Structures are given as C-alpha cells and as structure tokens.
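Kindly inspect this chain:
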Amino acid sequence: MNKNNRQKTNIVLLNKIKLCIVMPAHNEEQRIARTLENYGKLFHNLKKNKKIKDAEILIVINNTWDRTEELVKKARRKYKEIRYINFKEGGKGFAIMQGFKEACKRDWDLIGFVDADMSTSAEEYLHLAIKIEDYDGIIASRYMRGAVVTPKQSILRIMASRVFNFLIRSMFLMPYNDTQCGAKIFKKQVLVSILPELGITQWSFDIDLLYRLWKKGFKIKEVSTIWADAEKSKLKLGKASLQMLLSILQLRIINSKFRRLISPVKPIVGVLWRKLK
C-alpha cells in the first residue's frame, strides 16, 4: 500500500480503547515540539470526537541538559493528553522501561512506545493501534513489502541493517524483519507479565523485549510502515553497528543454556562496550 492509499484508509472507531504512548526523550529540543504538536493534536481530536476512549502521550525525559523539558511543558499546556516524567539517568531502553512501569500503574488497555523524532507520524502510529486486533502486540517494519521509507536509505545503511537482522534471526530464531523500528504497541497484561524480567537497556532493548515475548508464546504482529528518516540523526553508523553487535552478543550469552561455559566472554564484551561509549 503506498502512502496516498494509506492516508485514505478509514480510521475505525477505537471508542473502547485506552492507549498510552511512551516517548523517550534525550536532548530533543530540535525535534520534540513538532512531534508533540502532531501527536497531541491527533489524539486530542480523537478523544474530543469520541473515537478513542482515552489516550496519553507519556514523555520520559532522561539525562537531558537542553530545553526538552521546557518544550514538553509548553506542549502540555496546549494538550492535556501529554504528561511527562524526568530522570537523571539516561538511555533509550532505561527510559522506555520507566515509562512502561509508570503506564502499568494506570488503567490502560494498550501501552506502546515511539521515537521522539517523528520518524513515525501520529497517524501511522494510530494505524498500529487499529491493526493490533486480537494479537498480543504489534510492531512496525521498514523492511516488509509495502513499507515506505523516505528519504531512501543508503546502500550501506540497508546492508548494515540486513546483516544485523540476519544475526538476530540466527541467534534468537525470531521471525521479525525489523526488531529496531521505534514504533511498537502491546496489550498491558502482556507487558506486566514480562516487565520484571527486562534488563538490557542499551542497543538490544528491543530484541530483549521481543525475545522474552516470543519465548512465552505471545503473538506479535509485524506490519509495514511509513517511515520518515529523521533529520539531524544522532546515529553514527560505524560506532552504532559495533555497539549493537556487542549488545546482542551479551544478550545471547545471558539467555544461552551454556551461559556458564561461555560466561568468561562476557567481561570482554563489557570492556569493548565501555571503550565504544
């Protein structure tokens, strides 16, 4: 389905659904105002028109020293659907887990997360909520048929992503085409069941999350998405690729039946990780 056709898709009534969207934010002053306007406006209108029972955009500010909190407060004054919490600690995985813990205290049906850079628009995120149906969770994919990525990714970036995905499929035997896309939604009870087990908070957080759900037999749906590669990206491909490789090696060791035999490798991985930080 191309972008124009996707935009014409009728939005079904979600008047029985209560959705919480966790949005980690680390030094996002250049991008978060636009993102919150997009998300705040859509979900405010959905609530106003009774097309969704309740919705919240929960910003998890972490290890931030720029104007992110100021801009979040400004957006909150305009849209009551926006709420935030702030931590001195940093890391996307850490922020998402704290957001999950906070969301699980309240009466939500669906809890998900999305990147603050608006690579996934509010309309596209809503598409995930609509498509979850009877599944336990749903994840967006940039590498399934029908996905639209703009601007077109470089050959180098595509190759790095596909090699990384091949390693994940080989090491964890999961079927997903894109574990790293920053747009996912899960049933609340599903998150409650695995949240105490989550521990990896660096590059492999998404893999750890999906792998634990996969092992427990939960049904996770993967759907193609429209993805706008964020401007002013903080990602340095070479360094990030090495960090991601070390993270999945560490995760594989932790979850291996032979972890006692291969545990001597773990400190080496840790040293290499610290040198790359």
Notes: The longest strand covers residues 14-25. The CA atoms of residues 234 and 240 lie 10 Å apart. The chain is about 45% helix and 20% strand.
